[in-house]
Write a structure and sequence with these properties.
By secondary structure, the chain is mainly α. It has 2 helices and no strands.
Length: about 70
Amino acid sequence: MKYASIICIALLVFWVLIAILDMWFDVISWAVFIKLTITMGLLMVVALAIALVRREYVEESQLRKDKYLD
């Protein structure tokens, strides 16, 4: 979960920097900015989903190892 948080924060910081640059200097077109925003959001969701699935798998493996689950 720690790595997913770092990845999500890095993606968010990158997106915020691009948004600020685009507001002040019109670096990229509106269509590209929308595509980039959607892509960043999807990457964040995927990173969090992978982290949650991995954490659930590790916890279940630990419970099986400790004989709490059959």
